[in-house]
Amino acid sequence: MANIIDGKLISTEIKDEVKAKADELKAKGIEPCLAVVLVGEDPASQVYVRNKKRACEYCGIKSLSYELKEDTTEEELLALIDKLNADKDCNGILVQLPLPKHIDENKILLRILPEKDVDGFHPYNVGLLSIGNADLKACTPAGCIELIKRSGVDITGKRCVVVGRSNIVGKPVGMLLLSENGTVTTCHSRTKDIAEVCRQAEILVAAVGIPKFIKGDMVSEGVTVIDVGINRLENGKLCGDVDFEEVSEKAAYITPVPGGVGPMTIAMLMNNCVIACKKQNNI
Ligand code: GUN
User: Fold this and answer.
1) What pTM was computed for the model?
2) Residues in the ligand 1 pocket, defined by CB under 6 Å
3) For position 101, which CATH number holds?
4) If you placed Cys at 56, which of 33, 52, 61, 187 could pair as Cys (CB 3.0 to 4.6 Å)?
5) Is 17 exposed, middle or buried (0-12, 13-18, 19+ CB in 10 A)?
């Protein structure tokens, strides 16, 4: 039976570290501040935004909340971003995705100043990530790396397999594993014999969005498994991209869903807020 990686515990450790850094800044008269922007009334987004504001409170980061109506125009949202970009007291800007269909998400994300892009989604920050030089790393991928490292698993030289090639998880997690000296293979829907590629993995990151896609016969003994999937089943229960019951029989380390990667995203967002604040204040 595998060691279960406790994302809740590790995320609390990280938030406590962030809180200590925020306290140091406040002792210097600087209060880290995050602006959280939500457009519309998507219930899942409302929950995420509430949790982000709560995490700010926990860490001693000031949060500015902008809850805009569903029919907000692209121009209005861009004007808000311009205002927040110019606000010296606002260190990070988070626009909750998805946005309503009439707003061009890419245009919005491009407008956020890279130094305030605490999601790490701006192409400038994605570019820095790809050359191993990013301050603001995408939160979920950075959270995956922390889970691996803080479990005592060394990435250097390991065969790492990432299943999924999305811009927000698969691609950046592959780049981060490479920066950590892993040997990285990325699989996707067109990959031939995906099971065989997965069986080569010493570290496997699943980010495909298909419930229980990774089965017991797709992994080798002793593998470390990071499950990024959050899928809602018909019975209302959450389940990952990994068949936990089967895979945990063979893995050395495995993240559960919920309680694995999920809580890490917000912890890494808080960490990015403090990093952005320090950089903007030349600390
Ligand atoms: N929607 C779902 N996940 C995220 C995230 O990490 N950041 C933002 N901005 N929106 C999201």
Assistant:
1) 0.97
2) 94-97, 119, 139, 265
3) 3.40.50.10860
4) 61
5) middle
